[in-house]
Amino acid sequence: MAMRRLLKDKFAVVAAAVILLAVLIAILGYLITPDHTPFANEQILELSCRKPGTSVKILYLNQPQEYASVWWPARMIWGEKSNYRAVPILSYHFENEFIVVKASTGSDLTDGPELKYSLTDVLYGIPKADVVADGRNLIVNFRDAEGRFMRKDVKELQQEVEQENLDVRHYWLGTDRFGRDVLSQLMIGTRVSLSVGFISVALSLLIGLFLGSVAGFFGGRTDALITWLINVVWSIPTLLLVIAITFALGKGFWQVFIAVGLTMWVEVARVVRGQILSIREKEYVEAGRALGFRNPRIIFRHILPNTLAPVIVISAANFASAILIEAGLSFLGIGVQPPMPSWGTMIKDNYGYIILDSAYLAILPGIAIMMMVLAFMLIGNGLRDALDVKAN
């Protein structure tokens, strides 16, 4: 019945779709990002601050140091280092065993410096090779990185370069000042925001449910002590408490999760305590005591399940708060540390561009934060209405 009522709320359905899309992006990670490198951190300085929708022709140069291919589950989580160096170019042509390109200078000029690369250097990272004439054809003799002798026709090498090492790269949301793909940064930043929300809410539920149920069920001095602790933590501003915990634990990815989670249990504990105070005198609780059930069984199997409706609503609101707090900490420089992308870090690095012609660099992550927070608040409101039996 609650699910049917929830599905009638159009705003909650749209919010759930946004959240599911974000979760899918966070799970697939580097498998679907345009930039597959770790932290989506491929920097091409010649492409600094390119506008959204920019398309650039790229020549990929094989690097001497080759990285082993990564199995797809590992690539999905951590990304994969590239075996190529990307060179943005304006045009190219072949001169026998060489490819001559006009490189992009990072400006909007239609001309650039002319660079010349050996075909074997582009394909295999071997700058020098022997070229011999065989009738009308030119033959290239060389040894690959493993020392194997190879003999190839120049036209064959040219075709390989055109098929494998030349491509057009599209930057749908543009690039930042370091030439990194903004879309890839936003997509990996989704993983950070959802992770901090999920782990923080889980930690707050673990602490809040335990302390709130103990305080509400046993009452007396136990209730007074836990209530005093709730009031003390409640009186401290959340952001200041998170900053203090972050300084104590150090800067980093997991430290942010713990710091945010340790500040969100208070509201859960307060609500659970109030719910249990009104439930503990019910007939089924007295029946459990009469049957000799132990207190932990009565609390966790009979009382807590009847208090989950308001806890679910609070968890949705806490999820949104965790995303905002993480973004704020990253903006202040004490949250997720570079090169790991975070929406808050992206705003911090690019807020100066708001008054320039590249305001999108700060506006896009701000829109992403706004959409995720709004989605969780709407789904929380929808759950509140769907689970409210009296209102329905």
Give an overview in words:
With 392 residues, the chain is an alpha+beta fold. It folds into 2 domains: 54-171, no CATH class; 182-387, MetI-like fold, CATH 1.10.3720. Helices cover 55% and strands 14% of the residues. The strands form 2 sheets. A 5-stranded antiparallel sheet has the order 4-3-2-1-8. Strand 2 and strand 3 (98-103) form a beta hairpin. Helix 6 runs parallel beside helix 9 (253-261) and helix 7 (220-235) runs antiparallel to helix 10. The chain is elongated, with a radius of gyration of 29 Å. The N and C termini lie close together (10 Å). The model has no long low-confidence stretch (mean pLDDT 87).
Mean pLDDT, nearest integer?
87
CATH class membership of the largest domain? Mainly Alpha
Could you give the distance between the termini? 10 Å
Number of helices: 15
Shape estimate? elongated
Topology readout:
Blueprint: H1 2-7, H2 10-28, E1 54-62, H3 72-78, E2 84-95, E3 98-103, E4 114-118, H4 119-124, E5 130-134, E6 137-143, E7 149-153, H5 154-165, E8 166-171, H6 182-218, H7 220-235, H8 238-249, H9 253-261, H10 265-279, H11 283-290, H12 295-303, H13 308-332, H14 343-350, H15 360-387
Antiparallel strand pairs: 1-2, 1-8, 2-3, 3-4, 5-6, 6-7
Helix pairs in contact: 2-6, 2-15, 6-7, 6-9, 6-10, 6-13, 7-10, 8-9, 9-13, 10-13, 11-12, 13-14, 13-15, 14-15
